[in-house]
Structure of Cation-transporting P-type ATPase N-terminal domain-containing protein:
Amino acid sequence: MDSAPPPYPAPGDVESQQEGYFHRITIEDATLPSRDARGRGDVPLNREFHRTLSQHEGIDVVNRIPVEFRTLSIHVETKASTDQGKAGETRRVAVKDLVSLDWHKISADETLQRLNVSPKTGLDTAQAHRRLQTNGKNVISPPKSNIIRKLLEWVLGGFGSLLLAASIVCFIAWKPLGNPDPQASNLALAVVLLIVLLVQAVFNAWQDFSTSRVMSSIKGMLPSDVLVIRDGIQAKVPAADLVTGDLVYLVMGEKVPSDLRLVEVSGDLMFDRSILTGESEPVAGRVEMTDENFLETKNIALQGTHCVGGSGLGLVILTGDNTVFGRIAKLSSMEPMRLTTLQREILRFVVIIAGMATLVAILIVILWAAWLRRTYPDYINVPGLLIDVVSVMVAFIPEGLPVAVTLSLAKVANTLSKHKVLCKSLSIVETLGSVNVLCSDKTGTLTQNKMHVENVAVFDTVYHPESFRSDIARCSQEVAANLSQVAAVSSICNAATFEAGSSSDEKEKGAVGDATDVAILRFGDLVASAEVARHRWREIFRVNFNSKTKFMLKLSQLSPSAPLNSGLVAPIAPWDKFSPYDYLLTVKGAPEVLLPRCSFVLDPAGGPPIPISSSSIRDRLTIIQEQWARDGQRVLLLARKVIREGLIPKEVHRMSDEFAGIVEGCNKDLIIVGLVGLIDPLKPDIKHTVATCRRAGIRFFVVTGDHPTTAVSIAGQAGIITDTKLVQHAYDLNPDDKAYIPPYDPDTTDHQSKSIVITGPELQNLGPSQIEQLCQYEEIVFARTTPEQKLRIVNEFKKRENVVAVTGDGVNDAPSLKAADCGIAMGKGSDIAREAADMVLLDDFSAIIVALEYGRLVYDNLKKTVLYLLPAGSFSELMPIVLNILIGVPQMLSNIQMILICVATDVLPALSLCLEQPESGLLLRKPRNVRKDRLANWRLILQAYGFLGVLESLCAMAMSFWYLQRKGVPFSSLALGFGNWPGLDNELLFRAQSVYFFTLVLMQWGNLFATRGRKLSIFQHTPASNWYVFPAAGLALCIGIFFCYVPWFQKVFQTRPIPVEHFFIPITFGLALLFLDEVRKYFVRKYPSSAIARLAW
């Protein structure tokens, strides 16, 4: 027997594969006389090939591709006609190249000859290596980044624009408005603001770089191998190593790695081109040209599109930048940036702070113009007013926040990567922390996707698969002829294949394909050699299993090598009266779908099949199915039919739509060969994962294509359904539109609407009132769903203000993964699923708990960071300016000291809060409401300004005025002085300002330890869980001492040393602040319904 690989993963007859083969030409690639894509002769095969199959790299390009694919040439030409210069010429050349491609116009054999490749053996390794060395990697060149735009984003992002404006104002206040006596302090303030702006820009750039690095690691870690024919065997090679002339297998769920000319296709081969066209309808794959336009013909598989049905074999004709995908990417504009949930929250916070700062600045200008300038003309001049406005900006802006956010996200990304959780966007983790509805696929997500056949039934006689072979051997020839058909159909009607060179042991043979197909193939091979059974039949037409039809179909004819002289070939029986020219139709799929198409069932006692003439016979089959499904088994029906030669017209091409319609018309009056029950065991950690998610306030639903009884059984084993005996059904939903529907309450344990199972067809027939009732259930199993129905489920829950996450790994999960707020794909899933998802779990499903916890933790820690920064870095800095304007006292905190607090002394403690461990109960509370629970809501502002800020400001003011009073300058001589402050010189003022400064620095210690816990006491959430707070607090004081005690800084920043008692007294104030907050937390815990609890942040 020839060892050559089959035309596509499910092999047909070996002899048929040899037809039309030719000897491979051995001419060097560089000198191969050939024709290029335009048909020109004698052109060396020396083209640049770039491409990678990692779907995430395509993300930046995909969204920039024009939507209307079928009028793509028109759009491009119209655009080009209006462009001038080099860009327009580039577009015109690209369009000309696209429309002149002719690979689709020549035959498959001519395409193979043009690229010097044998359809039997493919390229040899040396030949592929030479082409790769000559033409380069198969990757698309990344788009050029706009450096100027990035620089502007880094510099002006967040508070950067305000800081830049403030710095410019300070320069203006220094000169020319400060002439003839410019103040050096104004220049120093301007320079310091520029330094702060530069530091923020560096951190913004670092965050951008870190995100890009994470994305690059995702591309590198996700699978990117393709199955090709090289050296006459099937081999997996990296997509980046593909070269023109490679023969690539296409199977459902994978992404097309380059532009391919289809040379072999199954009847149901379909491509989703929506990634290029925006069109939702799949496009069939054909061997012959269907359109003169290269972009529209069906015999070309375009790079970046997805195979959503069937299988085939394609010849690589264009790679990398030369593909349609790569060419269009060069013509397309940059993808518009979209803000994530966390980015929107930070932007909202920036707008709030900037708005408050602007409002206060305007009020100061109005007060100066309407009152101070007239009543006290010598008090504040124009440069002084500008500096006051800058002071307000500096006081309000927590300059340390961007640094804290950057480092916090980087820490989360690093932690998640260690747990094999990869995110397309770092802040998507925070979205996961807000999820309250999780829709999970079953196979491969809840279960191990390692199926095995548990039971076999012929009619209503049940057999064990391990003993089925010996059972057949003990039977009479007549009985054995019927029973052996189960194994034969299992092997023939199957899309899985055994790997070449794998173990001869049936249980250890390596297999490639869907887990269900692999399990059934192993069963068939256990009874009789699957390879022998397959090679006796030549495949004519095939329709692979998909989530819509829920069956696989295969039309075959006897192979010329079939041993007819030794008797009939399984699954043919004597009563079939089979002719060698007749056809065999084999079908495998869901019993409820195929049973109506069946008219007979095999008799386990031997002889002709039994007509299904009464409901009792169907009921006996249904009883078997329901019994197995209740045990969590997936039940499939195997059927067959002999089609006489004359019913299939020979003149109709087998790859045409007409032929597919003829075969579909024959898919009736089938003979039921048997039932097989398959078990896919739960993942070991799935029960713990489900329980944790449910305790976290997340409703965990199953959305699967399996039978409802099987799905409910698995859901019960996983803990998704509490009691499988009390599950309701569609008929329990009240169709009355006026009926009262109590909303789902996560705080209630005794829900009126507890558990329900709904099938896809039932979902389609539900009315608006019933849908509303369905969405209030705590436990739901959606069974027999199609991709469209899964998408509807996601949208229905999103419509009711739920944050929905979807997990899955298959092609049918892709639409719902993309539509969900957070799509989560399995690392071993299909390319399409990973393309659509926001997050990929490379290892266990249990990693979702880590992502969920850190999603909530990163948001909590950012709230703590904001709360820590606002009292001293905003409110307490604003008060000296306000009092300076309103009651005429000296400004007790200099502008330079305000900046030192924000970007020096407060930064390290703020960063230590980003490293806080989760408080107990983080996964025991309800998910946050993204529409109500904001990063900076009124409760947090009240805590920061009304409680912490007021206490710190009062204490700092008291300490600085007390110091002046001890030096002979009482408060009474300062109040309402408006510049007339007897006894106060600059030296005393500088020391008083330093007292205020150190009082804030030391009271922030109390704020730091108070803010670490939202509700837990410091004795419950001890500092031992985050030792970083201690060195951070100590370094904050050291930084303050450094700037106030080094002579050079004393001269430039006008800082001064302070008496020793002003170090110890503020520490007692910090302890008092911590004590007061502990009292507040106690009442919040003790009386959760009290006014204090409702005001708690």
